[in-house]
């Protein structure tokens, strides 16, 4: 990330080579459309190129930071698609299998991940499941509320309170 923030184009190529399959999987899982996922992935790397100097290793690992950007950009694109009224079929999602660990599994392998897993276990089951579905499962708050048959405000409040508790636990 230091090389990247210094404008090293080779560093961007190395980063892309190491992370693109995982990030594409995140985008595709959220968008259910290969072309949209490819567009978002390109946008993610352009954003990373421009904002590499904002990466803070004390707050997250590089893959966690990248996965968060990919998730957020994918959700933004999903909302754009919805506003355009397009209903995208999930025609190619099954063809993309990624056998490597997902973002949560990779995060859990490190010290930060073990701390996060411990703090997540301290949350009540509904809050824990909601946070995992939203942040690691790629569900939007709206989709999660629909899946659980609860009001959108309830999901937002549950996740917000859970994130506050996680932040407190992780800062200890």
TrEMBL record:
Keywords: DNA-binding, Sigma factor, Transcription, Transcription regulation. One of its GO terms (biological process) is DNA-templated transcription initiation. Residues 15-83 form the RNA polymerase sigma-70 region domain. Residues 114-166 form the RNA polymerase sigma factor 70 region 4 type domain. It comes from the Bacteria. One of its GO terms (molecular function) is sigma factor activity. Belongs to the sigma-70 factor family. ECF subfamily. This is RNA polymerase sigma factor. It comes from Jiella flava.
